[in-house]
Amino acid sequence: MRITIDRDRCIGSGQCVMTAPGVFTQDDDAVVALLPGQEDGAGDPRVRDVPMACPVQAVTISGE
Amino acid sequence: MTETDIRPTGSPDLSFPQDRTCPYQPPKVYADGRGQGPLSRVELFDGRPAWMVTGHAEGRALLADPRLSSDWGHPVFPVVVQRTEDRGGLAFPLIGVDDPEHARQRRMLIPSFGVKRMAAMRPLIQDLVDRLLDDMLEKGPTADLVSAFALPVPSMAICELLGVPYGDHDFFEERSRDFVGAATSAEADAAFAALYGYLHGLVAKKQAEPGDGLLDELIARQLEEGALDHNEVVMIALVLLVAGHETTVNAIALGALTLLEHPEQLEALRNDPGLISGTVEELLRFTSVSDYMVRMAKEDIEVGGETIKAGDAVVVSISLMNRDAKAYEDPDTFDVRRNARHHVGFGHGIHQCLGQNLARAEIEIALGTLVTRIPGLRLAVPVDEVPIKAGHDAQGPVELPVTW
């Protein structure tokens, strides 16, 4: 699985962090960031729900 | 509760908005629109036709679509109650502007509402909630849960976050209420002018004597650097102060009422406090305090087998999207164990609520603590005697008499 984040689109809603807190975080500007080493989703099935949870399609997932 | 039909089912010119009869149920006449597909036709008070979007998937797609505008300043932007546009040419930041203006303003503000900042607010909110309940219990065994609890929690929290002196709360609570709830333009304009004047003075005072709230940060970082002018700071303060007052109060009061009216669900929550965050999401879905959003199409948009034409008025029905059977099983059942994911209680798209994580923390701590500390809590009047707000307003009880 490969997670792509679009930091320019992000509005800081935090839906990604709420959905998969082990993978997503917010930086000091409250913009989406991936936790170090978690770029492949770390096997967390909740990551699959993040693209739908994000209000502005700032997160996309490709691959298995 | 029984609902009263105002017009025949499926009437093409249903007048929007309608008042709720049951505080936590969308008006039955809207629900009848669900039979017509994801979009139906309604008429606004001024005779303007509008699309009412009730499908969950279609509504989410539209709220995320940049072809739908939130530009309140547009000369023919649709309105749902009689209001003048006489705000002295002042635009409403965030809620009343489109990107890229919206994105510029939102970026300045999101650090103050980020997940980490909100987590750091939780002990303060818990302390507020504990003190308010101490006070309520001491004065009891009856109270108006709105004025004694549901209002002061978000009021104190937003004051703390913004750096607005809570000592002035009687003044701005009343004006916020009048501004949002007013049925006439004269009332709304007077409340707006009073709030604007108050915050204009506060920003000037803070420029001379800085504090440590969000407004102080905006003044220091943005006003001084020339990224914002004085009026914009005042208008941002006004939008955040009003939004902080007129939404979460309803979510707490209507949440308490909904739990009290579903005793088996309340019992489940009392027995397993770990259900509280799921309960809050389900309450946001089920009660839809912000019942609708208003937009205007900038271009033609094909959706749900219909064509929304450029210039058309669009009412996105949050309450019916949250009750769409295609998105939620038994959508009209309140179930604290449900996964209410993808509800649109905070909206969707670029305008999704900036303060949503503050609101979540407030609702969760307020309701979780309330049901634990007052196990005998009950309504002091029958539910159909609880006065509720008009259909155009944020939804919730005007007052909520309780006893224990």
From TrEMBL, chain A:
Domain 4Fe-4S ferredoxin-type: 1-29
Keywords carried by this UniProt record: 3Fe-4S, Electron transport, Iron, Iron-sulfur, Metal-binding, Transport
InterPro entries associated with the record: 3Fe4S_ferredoxin (IPR001080), 4Fe4S_Fe-S-bd (IPR017896), Fe-S_cluster_ET (IPR051269)
An example Gene Ontology molecular-function term: 3 iron, 4 sulfur cluster binding
Keyword field contains Electron transport: yes
Cofactor(s) this protein requires: [3Fe-4S] cluster
PANTHER family listed in its UniProt record: FERREDOXIN (PTHR36923)
Role description: Ferredoxins are iron-sulfur proteins that transfer electrons in a wide variety of metabolic reactions.
Protein name, entry field: Ferredoxin
Species: Streptomyces telluris
UniProtKB/TrEMBL annotation, chain B:
Gene3D superfamilies the record matches: Cytochrome P450 (1.10.630.10)
SUPFAM superfamilies noted in UniProt: Cytochrome P450
Annotated region described as Disordered, given as residue ranges: 1-20
Superkingdom of origin: Bacteria
Pfam family, one: p450
PROSITE patterns: CYTOCHROME_P450 (PS00086)
Keyword terms, alphabetized: Heme, Iron, Metal-binding, Monooxygenase, Oxidoreductase
Stated family: Belongs to the cytochrome P450 family.
The protein's name: Cytochrome P450
